[in-house]
Automatic annotation (TrEMBL):
GO annotation, cellular component aspect: nucleus
Designated name of the protein: SIR2 family histone deacetylase
GO molecular-function term, one example from the UniProt record: histone deacetylase activity, NAD-dependent
Keywords associated with the record: Metal-binding, NAD, Transferase, Zinc
Length: 292
C-alpha cells in the first residue's frame, strides 16, 4: 500500500481516475486571508461565528447578524482566489466528470473561473440577498432573491462593516470592548417584492434546509457510477450534509484524499482506509502540486 502522503502514488491514482468529487471548507480560503470558523478565526467580537449563523440570531438582532455578514462580504470582496481555487477550476475545465461541492460562501470559486455547472455552493453565497419575514416563525419570506449583490457597504447603517483600517489597528467593529450602536430594524432594507419582509444574507444557516434540488442532483451524481477520488479540502467535516458526502461516495476502489493542516495527526491517520491519502499543509500550496 503506497504511503498515505506519497504524491507520486496519488498522481498515479489521479491519472487512472475519471469521476472526482471535492468537498471544500473554510480552510481552502484561509490563504486568501478569510478566517475559518472553528480555528482562531472562529470568533467575531466574542461571538462564535456559528452562533450568529442561525435564523434565531437574526430574528433576535438583525443588525448584529447583518454587521457580521457585511464584514464578511467586505473581507471577501477584498480577497482574491488563491492557487487552490485556481487548481480546482483548472481540474474542472480539464475533466467534465469532476464535481466540486463547497461550503464556502465567499464567491472565490466563481471568481477563480470554476465552471458553474461543476460546482455546488452548498451553503449559498454572501452575495445572494433574500427575503425573510420576521413574523413568520420559520422565517420563510416571500421567495424574493437577488444574486450578485456586491454593494459594500450593503446599506448606510452597515457602513462600519466596510471601513478599512491600518494594519496595526483593530477595526472598532472587531473590538469586543468597543460598544456597537444597536442598528434599528427600520434601517435594515426591506424586501422590494413584498415590502413586508427584511433583506437577509442568502446563506444557509444552521437548522435551515439546503436547496432540495441541489441535494437531489448531488445524490444522483454520486449514484451515477463509481467515484474514483473524493478530495476533502480544508474542512473540519462537522457540518452536515456536507460532512456526509465523502462516506456516501466511497466504494471499495475509492480514494478519499484529505488535504488539511491537521491531515497527518495520528487521530486523523487512524481513520484512513486502504486506498486513502492524507496531505498535511496549506490547501493553496498542496492543491496545485497534487492536481497538476
Ligand atoms: C440541514 C452559514 C436539514 C453560512 C453554515 C446530521 C448529524 C448531526 C447534525 C446534523 C445532521 N444533519 C443536519 C444537522 C444539523 C446541522 C449540523 O450539521 N450541525 C452540526 C454542526 C452538529 N446542519 C444543518 O443545520 C444544515 N441544515 O441539514 O437541514 C435539517 C434542518 C434542521 C435539523 C436537522 C436537519 C445547515 C448547515 C449549514 C450551516 N451554515 N454557515 C456562513 O455563514 O458561512 S456552516 C459553517 O460551517 C460554514 O458554512 C462553514 O463552511 C461550515 C463548515 O466549517 P468548515 O468550512 O469546515 O470550517 P472550519 O473552520 O470548521 O474548519 C476549517 C478546517 O480547515 C479545519 O479542519 C482546519 O484544520 C483546516 N484549515 C485551516 N487552514 C487551512 C486548513 N486546511 C488547509 N489549508 C489551510 N490553509
Amino acid at each position: 500500500m503506497p504511503k498515505y502522503n506519497d504524491i507520486s502514488a496519488f498522481h498515479e491514482k489521479l491519472t487512472r481516475s475519471k469521476r472526482i468529487l471535492a468537498v471544500c471548507g473554510a480552510g481552502l480560503s484561509a490563504a486568501s486571508g478569510l478566517p475559518t470558523f472553528r480555528g482562531a478565526g472562529g470568533l467575531w467580537r466574542n461571538h462564535r461565528a456559528t452562533d450568529l449563523a442561525t435564523p434565531t440570531a437574526f430574528v433576535k438582532d438583525p443588525g448584529l447578524v447583518w454587521l457580521f455578514y457585511a464584514y464578511r462580504r467586505h473581507m471577501a470582496l477584498n480577497a482574491t482566489p488563491n492557487a487552490g481555487h485556481f487548481a480546482l477550476a483548472a481540474l474542472a475545465r480539464k475533466n467534465g466528470k469532476f464535481l466540486c461541492l463547497s461550503q464556502n460562501v465567499d464567491n472565490l470559486h466563481p471568481r477563480a473561473g470554476h465552471p458553474s455547472e461543476q460546482i455546488k455552493l452548498l451553503h449559498g453565497s454572501l452575495f445572494d440577498i433574500k427575503c425573510i419575514d420576521l413574523n413568520d416563525e420559520d422565517g420563510e419570506g416571500c421567495g424574493w432573491i437577488q444574486h450578485d449583490n456586491f454593494d459594500d457597504p450593503f446599506c448606510p447603517a452597515l457602513a462600519a462593516a466596510a471601513e478599512d483600517v491600518e494594519p496595526d489597528k483593530t477595526l472598532p467593529l472587531l473590538d469586543p470592548d468597543h460598544e456597537l450602536a444597536k442598528i434599528p430594524v427600520s434601517e435594515i432594507p426591506k424586501c422590494p417584492q413584498c415590502s413586508n419582509g427584511l433583506q437577509r444574507p442568502g446563506v444557509v444557516w444552521f437548522d435551515e434546509s439546503l436547496d432540495g434540488n441541489m441535494l437531489d442532483a448531488i445524490d444522483a451524481w454520486i449514484k451515477q457510477d463509481v467515484v474514483d477520488i473524493v478530495l476533502v479540502i480544508g474542512t473540519s467535516a462537522v457540518v452536515y450534509p456536507a460532512a456526509g458526502y465523502a462516506g456516501q461516495a466511497r466504494s471499495g476502489s475509492t480514494s478519499v484524499v484529505t488535504i488539511n493542516l491537521e491531515a497527518e495527526l495520528p487521530q486523523n491517520l487512524a481513520k484512513l482506509k486502504k486506498n486513502d491519502f492524507a496531505f498535511a499543509g496549506d490547501a493553496a500550496v498542496l492543491l496545485p502540486k497534487l492536481l497538476e
